[in-house]
Amino acid sequence: MRTSPAVDKAAGALAEAVPAALRRREVTDLLRARALGRPVHPAVVVLPIGLYAASAALDLMPGSSKAARALIGAGLAVAPAALATELAEYGTLDEKQRRVAFVQLVANAAADVCYLTSFRLRGHGFGVVARAVSAVGLAALGAGGLLGVRPADPAAPGGVREPV
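Above: the chain sequence. Below: its structure as tokens.
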């Protein structure tokens, strides 16, 4: 991602705004799953993404609107855990990583707002509009996810992409 003074400023402001409770070593060690030896955020963030993506698949099947809404609800229920683990990692990132993480966080937050809106619309019988709002949310997730992938390494077999 190219440098952007505005994004860097916003990313720095977020780093300073992370609640003090999330900066305490005991909390960050727990949220980062230090005992496992690897950050837990990548594993936790796939939960809402997978649930949202599965709801999109169900939206393509007639008669599956209740199941799609249930998956969106489950995604919304685990989204705060993904956010907490991301914020716990956020303070450990260098400026370039923080820039990418900030944009991903904004994209994920936009997706969560779309899915929350879709969930509520579905509850009030606005299925077609709700599916469209979900599609926008899925696009936001995809855009944010693409930022966290390094270009393919030509030396790697099959040009494998790796997460940042």
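The helical segments are 5-17, 20-23, 25-31, 41-59, 65-90, 95-123, 127-147.
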